[in-house]
């Protein structure tokens, strides 16, 4: 075939694909209009590329500019439901016209899977579903999936100074994705994960049924609380158990450079942090200091902590268990639990709680990875990490070490899909950020974090090398665009869920055998 003929065929194929995509888009919109309730018209909450507000609706909750480029696939339609009927109508029409649905609550998916798809797709954006109802008398709350953690914390504090919830430290994270992946924060050694404290949920399944815990059954309820809710349906809201916290807690951050024995202190931390009193949480934030450009780069270890009590008890505890850190009373600040939320989020002391209601976030491009550590890493191996911080790509990089133990070691690996329990002494999160545009910058920084990840392989969990589902990482494996076999999905699935992956597949097979709810790392049904 001549080149001119090939080009002609290609042009015809592209025209056909564009026409098909346009027709699918129009048919989907027409379906929504026809099936929406008269007193709840759906047209007011739909955004299409022809709408002047489309870009704003799309980009307002894109938290990673790596997935906000001209070549990034864009949704055919964005639906921002006001209630259950709008979700049901969207799911019905999407199935009828064979268009994928991606559900977004806060937009923090590390690989952008809540708002990007290689196939024609619709975003079901939960931004309007963020109602929060606090029941102080029964120590419970109902929270819709579109709410942020900041909004949840704000309204808990509005009702009580001595109630809290064990979820994350970033106030802009959406509740929906956070809870469904497990979710953790500074209270995990005392109370476990967010998902460990979920009592009930409301979910819309592939058939459009509105289900609570009783009607969905214990298998499905188990699956959505740590197995990634996007595989099983649209989770509308969660009922959670609020936990007691003291009227005052104590926080501190002690920073140590390499010249201040940071390596030795960090090595000792590995033995102390997972075994100390469960009222004490001490994480370590490793960052570079100085400038790569001017050759004065070093490494700083920040020991960032909360104690559920006063410093009169904290200081003796630290002197006995972790004297190497050299904590003194002047390092410590007593405050309410809600103020500690602001402290860990990086706000200045005395900042108004209203900042927790701010859903905006300064964003850059970033890539993340995770690991679990089961045995303390030797000092020599820790020293092998430091040169990574001296490379030019590491100017804005961070490694965060979160201790386990306490309540985390008491909960069974199979209690919820999250399996990383007894035997893990801490979890590692690796992050690298960059502001430069273009594929070269992206490839350079992603290569940096992959090299660091490769270096860490001998010192972390293995068979499988465990990872945290909420720190999504497509490097560890992904599904085919079409059908994905159990064997292929288990490559990444066992790293996130270990033996729980098998049960998740059985639940998926029962609730969504056609695999309508799918993405690059969704649980596949057995038929696939």
Automatic annotation (TrEMBL):
One Pfam family, short name: BBE
GO biological process terms held by the UniProt record: cannabinoid biosynthetic process
Keyword Transmembrane helix: no
Protein family membership: Belongs to the oxygen-dependent FAD-linked oxidoreductase family.
Record protein name field: FAD-binding PCMH-type domain-containing protein
GO molecular function term, any single one: oxidoreductase activity
Occurrences of domain FAD-binding PCMH-type (ranges): 71-245
Organism: Quercus rubra (Northern red oak)
Cofactor(s) this protein requires: FAD
Keyword list, A-Z: Disulfide bond, FAD, Flavoprotein, Glycoprotein, Signal
InterPro entries given in the database record: BBE, FAD-bd_PCMH, FAD-bd_PCMH-like_sf, FAD-bd_PCMH_sub1, FAD-bd_PCMH_sub2, Oxid_FAD_bind_N
Signal peptide range in chain numbering: 1-22
């Amino acid at each position: 075939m001549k080149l001119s003929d090939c080009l002609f065929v290609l042009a015809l194929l592209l025209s056909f694909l564009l026409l098909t995509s346009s027709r699918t888009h129009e048919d989907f919109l027409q379906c929504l209009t026809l099936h929406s309730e008269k007193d709840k018209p759906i047209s007011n909450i739909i955004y299409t590329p022809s709408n002047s507000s489309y870009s704003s609706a799309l980009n307002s909750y894109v938290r990673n500019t790596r997935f906000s480029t001209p070549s990034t696939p864009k949704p055919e339609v964005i639906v921002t439901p006001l209630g259950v009927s709008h979700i049901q109508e969207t799911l019905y029409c999407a199935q009828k016209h064979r268009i994928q649905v991606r559900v977004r609550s806060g937009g923090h998916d590390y690989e952008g899977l809540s708002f990007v798809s290689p196939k024609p797709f619709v975003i079901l954006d939960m931004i309007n579903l963020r109602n929060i109802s606090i029941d102080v008398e029964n120590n419970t709350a109902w929270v819709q999936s579109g709410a942020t953690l900041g909004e949840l914390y704000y309204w808990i504090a509005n009702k009580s100074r001595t109630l809290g919830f064990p979820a994350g430290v970033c106030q802009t994270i959406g509740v929906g994705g956070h809870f469904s992946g497990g979710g953790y924060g500074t209270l995990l050694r005392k109370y476990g994960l967010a998902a460990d404290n979920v009592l009930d949920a409301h979910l819309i399944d592939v058939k459009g049924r509105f289900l609570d815990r009783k009607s969905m059954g214990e298998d499905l309820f188990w699956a959505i609380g740590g197995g990634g809710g996007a595989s099983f349906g649209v989770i509308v809201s969660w009922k959670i158990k609020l936990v007691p916290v003291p009227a005052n807690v104590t926080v501190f951050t002690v920073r140590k450079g390499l010249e201040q024995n940071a390596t030795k202190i960090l090595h000792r931390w590995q033995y102390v942090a997972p075994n100390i009193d469960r009222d004490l949480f001490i994480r370590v934030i490793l960052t570079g200091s100085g400038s790569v450009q001017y050759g004065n780069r070093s490494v700083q270890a920040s020991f960032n902590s909360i104690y559920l009590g006063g410093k009169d008890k904290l200081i003796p505890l630290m002197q006995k268990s972790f004297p190497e850190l050299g904590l003194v009373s002047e390092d410590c600040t007593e405050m309410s639990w809600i103020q500690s939320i602001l402290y860990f989020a990086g706000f200045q002391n005395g900042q108004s709680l209203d900042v927790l209601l701010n859903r905006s976030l300064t964003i850059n491009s970033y890539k993340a990875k995770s690991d679990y550590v089961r045995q303390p890493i030797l000092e020599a191996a820790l020293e092998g990490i430091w040169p990574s911080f001296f490379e030019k790509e590491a100017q804005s990089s961070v490694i965060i070490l979160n201790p386990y133990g306490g309540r985390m070691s008491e909960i069974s690996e199979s209690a919820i899909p999250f399996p990383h329990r007894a035997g893990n002494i801490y979890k590692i999160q690796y992050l690298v950020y960059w502001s430069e545009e273009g594929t070269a910058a992206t490839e350079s920084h992603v290569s940096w974090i992959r090299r660091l990840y490769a270096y860490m392989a001998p010192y972390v969990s293995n068979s499988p090398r465990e990872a945290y589902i909420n720190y999504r990482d497509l490097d560890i494996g992904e599904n085919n665009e079409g059908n994905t076999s159990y064997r292929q999905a288990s490559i990444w699935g066992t790293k996130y869920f270990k033996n729980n992956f098998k049960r998740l597949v059985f639940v998926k097979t029962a609730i969504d055998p056609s695999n309508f709810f799918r993405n690059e790392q969704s649980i596949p049904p057995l038929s696939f």
